[in-house]
Structure formats: structure tokens, C-alpha cells
Specification:
By secondary structure, the chain is of the alpha+beta class. Helices cover 54% and strands 7% of the residues. The protein folds into two domains: 359 residues, no CATH class; 147 residues, no CATH class.
Length: 605
């Protein structure tokens, strides 16, 4: 309440408020600048550049944006499609469908195309993650805006987030995590309980659509943090008093989210083309314990040659904090514990337990140190067989540790700036420690490469002269994660309103793996196996009459009307030999005809 008439009459904010708003603006600008810096290689030419280490996932997300916009504007099912994997189709609810993004950004996709829209979302994801964590920290946890900015920027541009910026629109949507935390703790308040429960339910549904695995990990992390925090003696009485209200709000959330997600969840667990678990080996996709003290590739330390090859691939550097930051985190935790009162110690205890639990779980079912495996079982060995858990990659559980470190850094800077000190060197010493720990982790731009152009046969719409409405065509080699061109062609046709053509394969997760688990793409058949072998090795396989008959039977099974080979084929993992492909396809299907800039084989009905 105002304490003097001048506060009522003066419309300007009090002096202390203006610097806070300036701090907010500075954090936003820094977040946007860093996000643009990380993605700058793509901004040079979004339509002709691709992320070097993960061009296949980039093609998948571009396709998801094009298909999602097409589905909602043409009244089609956004969670299941027959445009890929004909005739069986693809269950997109089991895949990362990013439906909310596809719908919200559909006007942009139709205006500037899927590649540019992908880049806009990727950049905004990183910046929005920093902003969301900044708002949570500055409005709920610390008083000092600099402290909130340090913690938020670390989380948003931590090694795990930067590595997943290699084309993962789902994992870079880290802004969902502080939003979920905010809405969860709002359920403690009895006022506006119905509204809070509904808002949290909608937030859960949005998070499921954009990053279902991230939502699951957030739920697991909160499932550890909240009980530890609530059972601490300093919080126990307050938590017990708030529990009835919290449970009622959680019930409203469950009903809301259940209603919104009923159909996607049915498809996910009981629909066609579902599977149980994935084909990824949890031993391979587990975090190397030494990786926590290593440096990531796309960082100043990595650019200086201090990076390692301890991750299963460059998109999964989920810890990689470096030894200085690990040491600083421990020292920071001890100092904060000494300075803290009982209620702050409750939060610190919950943060510490959560970080340790998820760090250990990220190590997977067996100990792995500096690239060497040891037959020593770990806790994940007991959990890995559980439903839903068996579909998660254990190394990604390390992503939970970064926000914990970010919160601790925010607490530390807040305390150092506000706590009286006996020695003049105390604050400079903490500043030097922060610089030594964080400067090597400053990100550098993602590596990019020139992508193969979409052939004129597609961009000019010539394909419509050879494919009947709703019919199928296929490039060779067939569309998979390692050869994603076909999905880019289809994304172009959908986003440019050319109509639909189906593909017999595609980059997706579907059934067909061992023991009912999933696999990437469909189970191979004769035709695609021969073409993949030719493109990868540069050698024409031995072709027999049996090979010819089986290959043509495959094309008829898929309903393929034309087989297409462009002059250049993009290989996401290895170069593709176009001449070997042309000779192999000719041996199987006869002489091709030249149409626009592709070789084309028409398949008799």
C-alpha cells in the first residue's frame, strides 16, 4: 500500500523498479543473441544448409511441421498418417509429433517453408528456455536479477541443451520445464484452485505434444524433489496443511489432461503401429561417468581441442560439465548449506538428492568409465524393464542435473551479492571461480553443411504428371534416417500445396524390432535392401531373376508408381553413390527416362 501522497500521485515507478526492468530486458537480449549465435550457421541460408551431425533429425522435424500444418488445414488426423510406410502407415503419437508447434506455426510454414520455420522454432526454443527459467528464478527463488540471469542462461545454454540443438525441437523446448514447475506449485494455493488445475492440465497436454519424453523426465524429477522437499522437518507442517488442496488440484489436472490426451494416449499405448520400448541399447546410450567432468564439442573448450568422444553421438552430450564446474557446484552447495536457514536447507536437500539420483540413473545399467565398460550393475538395471522407462535413453536423465546446477548458481550469486563479507577478496574470488567454471562452456555455433537441393521434378510439381492422386512414389535409396531426401520432398509438396504423394518408407519409429520393440523405419524388403547396399558401397549387387521378381513385388505391395533418382543424394551418415544406384535400379526395372533433373522408372500396375 502507498505510504505517502507522492506515491499515489506520481505515475512513474519507484527508483528500485526501473533497474529491475532493465535487467529483464538485458537477459532477453542476451538470450536472443546467444540463441542466434548457436544457430548462426543455419541463418546463413535456411533452405540450403543442414546441421552436419544430425541432418536426418532436422529433415524429420521439417517434415513434421509440414505434415502437421497440412493435416489441420485439410481435416486429416495429425496423430496418424498413411503418407509414410504405405500401406501400414505411421503412428505419430508414439513418435515425437510436435503437433502444437506444427499447428501454431502452420501459417509460417506455408509462408517461408519448413526449413526456415524449423530454424525459427529452434532459435526461439533456446531463448525461451532462458527467459522461462529467468522468470521462475527471479520471481520465486532469488531477489537479485543478475543471479537469476546467470542461473537461467546456464540452464538454457548448458552442454546438454546445446548438443540437443543439433536438430531436436523437442529437447530444446526447455521452457516447458519451469512452466510445469510453476503450475505444479500453484496447486498448493486454495484460491483459484479450479483455474490452476485446468491450466496445469493444459500445460501437461502441450508438453506431451511437444516433448513427451521431456515431460516424463520432468515428472520423474518432481516425483523425487517434491517428496524430499515436503518431508523435510522445516517444510513438513506446511506441506501437510497444503496436501488436501494440492491433491484436489492434481485431480482437476488429471481430468483436464486426460480429456485432452485421451486419443493420443490410446494411440500411443493401444493404437495401430505401436511398439513397446525402442531399439536403442541402454548400455550404449548411457552416460559415461567420466563425461560429467569432460567438455562438450560445441563450446569454447571444445573449440580449443579439450573435447572428448565420450558421448554416444554429438547430440547426446547430456552432462559434460567439466571438472571446474563440478568442483564449484560442490563448494557452492556446502557454502549455501552453511549460510542457509531451515527452509532453504529443505530446498537444498531436495535439489541435492534429485541431482544425485538422476546422475546415477543416467549411467545406465552398467558402469562405464572413460569408454570402458565394467560388469558392475547399477540402479537403472532394475528400472530399465519397466513400461515407459524402457523407451527412455538413460543418458538423457543427466539433463535433469543441469537445472539443479543452474538453481544453485543463482542462489550462490544472490548470496554473494547480498551477504556482508569480512574480506574484500571474497566476492572477486567467487567471480573468478564462476568464470573459470563457466567460460569454457560458452557455446560456439553448430556445425552446418550444404544440403542436397530438392529436384525440380518436385519443386515444379512435375511429379503430379506421373503419380495419381494419393499414389506413391519413392526415391532411391528409400527414405530412412540415413537417406532423408524423400521426406524433405514430401514436406516441400505439402507446404507448397502441391497435393499428397505417399512414400513406402520414412524416418520414424515403428514396430518390427526384437521382442516387440521398435525400430527406425519399416522392416527391410528385397528392393530397399539392394538399393541401400548399392548406394552405401558403390557396388552393384548381384542381380538374379529372383531379385527382379521380388523387387517388383515389393513395389507393387507398396503401390509405388514411379521410382526416382536425382543427380545428387544426401547421405546423413555416409556418402551415397548415385551411379551405383542408377545401374542397380536399371538392372531391376529396365532403362529409365530423364524427366527434368531426375532419372525416372515407371512401375507397371
Amino acid at each position: 500500500m502507498p505510504t505517502s501522497p507522492s506515491q499515489v500521485n506520481d505515475p512513474s515507478p519507484p527508483p528500485a523498479t526501473r533497474p529491475r526492468w532493465r535487467a529483464d530486458v538485458v537477459v532477453i537480449l542476451v538470450a536472443l543473441a546467444l540463441a542466434g549465435w548457436v544457430t548462426s550457421g543455419l541463418w546463413r541460408s535456411p533452405d540450403t544448409r543442414a546441421i552436419t551431425v544430425n541432418s536426418s533429425d532436422q529433415a524429420l522435424f521439417e517434415w513434421l511441421l509440414a505434415f502437421g500444418g497440412h493435416a489441420v488445414t485439410h481435416g486429416e488426423n495429425p496423430f496418424f498418417t498413411y503418407l509414410l510406410n504405405v500401406p501400414d502407415g505411421v503412428n505419430l503419437a508414439v513418435n515425437t509429433s510436435i503437433t502444437v508447434y506444427a499447428v501454431l506455426f502452420a501459417p509460417l510454414t506455408y509462408t517461408i517453408g519448413p526449413p526456415a520455420t524449423f530454424l525459427v522454432i529452434l532459435t526461439l526454443n533456446l531463448a525461451a528456455t532462458a527467459l522461462a527459467w529467468y522468470l521462475l528464478l527471479s520471481r520465486s527463488l532469488v531477489d537479485n536479477r543478475l543471479a537469476a540471469g546467470v542461473g537461467a542462461l546456464f540452464v538454457a545454454f548448458s552442454p546438454g541443451m546445446v548438443s540437443h540443438a543439433n536438430a531436436h525441437l523437442n529437447w530444446t523446448a526447455g521452457w516447458l520445464v519451469p512452466l510445469l514447475i510453476w503450475r505444479l506449485f500453484a496447486l498448493r494455493r486454495p484460491e483459484h484452485l479450479l483455474r490452476n488445475g485446468i491450466l496445469f492440465g493444459v500445460t501437461v497436454a502441450v508438453a506431451f505434444s511437444i516433448a513427451a519424453e521431456g515431460l516424463f523426465f520432468t515428472a520423474l524429477a518432481l516425483g523425487v524433489f517434491v517428496p524430499v522437499w515436503a518431508l523435510h522437518p522445516a517444510r513438513r507442517a506446511t506441506a501437510r496443511a497444503a496436501l488436501p488442496t494440492f491433491l484436489r488440484g492434481l485431480g482437476i489436472t488429471t481430468v483436464t489432461a486426460g480429456a485432452l490426451l485421451a486419443y493420443p494416449l490410446w494411440l500411443h499405448f493401444a493404437g495401430p503401429q505401436r511398439f513397446h520400448g525402442t531399439g536403442f541399447d541402454p548400455v550404449v546410450h548411457a552416460e559415461d561417468i567420466a563425461a560429467f567432468g569432460a567438455y562438450p564439442q560445441r563450446s569454447l573448450a571444445g573449440a580449443a581441442g579439450w573435447d572428448t568422444s565420450l558421448a554416444p553421438n554429438p547430440t547426446e552430450e547430456n552432462s559434460f560439465f567439466g571438472v571446474p564446474l563440478l568442483v564449484l557446484t560442490v563448494v557452492c552447495f556446502v557454502a549455501l548449506w552453511r549460510w542457509a536457514g531451515p527452509t532453504r536447507r529443505a530446498t537444498l536437500t531436495a535439489l541435492g538428492v534429485t541431482a544425485v539420483v538422476f546422475a546415477v540413473l543416467s549411467w545406465g545399467p552398467q558402469v562405464k568409465w572413460n569408454g570402458h565398460r565394467y560388469d558392475v550393475p547399477l540402479p537403472f538395471d532394475l528400472l530399465g524393464a519397466l513400461p515407459v522407462v524402457n523407451a527412455a535413453l538413460p543418458s538423457r536423465l543427466a539433463l535433469v542435473v543441469a537445472p539443479v546446477i543452474g538453481v544453485l548458481l543463482a542462489y550462490l550469486v544472490d548470496e554473494v551479492r547480498t551477504r556482508p563479507t569480512r574480506h574484500r577478496w571474497t566476492r572477486p574470488a567467487w567471480a573468478v571461480a564462476l568464470a573459470v567454471a563457466l567460460v569454457p562452456l560458452v557455446p560456439v555455433p553448430l556445425l552446418t553443411v550444404e544440403r542436397e537441393p530438392i529436384p525440380r521434378f518436385v519443386t515444379a510439381g512435375t511429379w503430379r504428371e506421373y503419380v495419381s492422386p494419393g499414389g506413391a512414389l519413392t526415391p532411391v535409396p528409400l527414405t530412412l534416417d540415413v537417406t532423408p531426401d524423400g521426406q524433405r520432398w514430401q514436406a516441400y509438396a505439402l507446404s507448397h500445396r502441391q497435393g499428397e504423394f505417399a512414400l513406402p518408407s520414412g524416418f520414424f519409429l515403428g514396430p518390427g524390432g526384437p521382442d516387440g520393440r521398435g525400430r527406425i523405419g519399416p522392416v527391410p524388403r528385397t528392393f530397399d535392401t539392394l538399393m541401400e547396399q548399392a548406394g552405401r558401397t558403390g557396388l552393384v549387387p548381384i542381380i538374379t531373376q529372383g531379385s527382379v521378381d521380388l523387387s517388383r513385388a515389393d513395389l507393387r505391395y507398396w503401390g509405388v508408381e514411379v521410382v526416382v533418382l536425382p543427380d545428387r543424394v544426401h547421405g546423413a551418415k555416409y556418402p551415397i553413390d548415385v551411379e551405383a544406384l542408377r545401374r542397380t535400379a536399371t538392372a531391376l526395372l529396365g532403362e529409365p527416362q530423364r524427366v527434368d533433373d531426375v532419372w525416372l522408372w515407371q512401375v507397371p500396375a
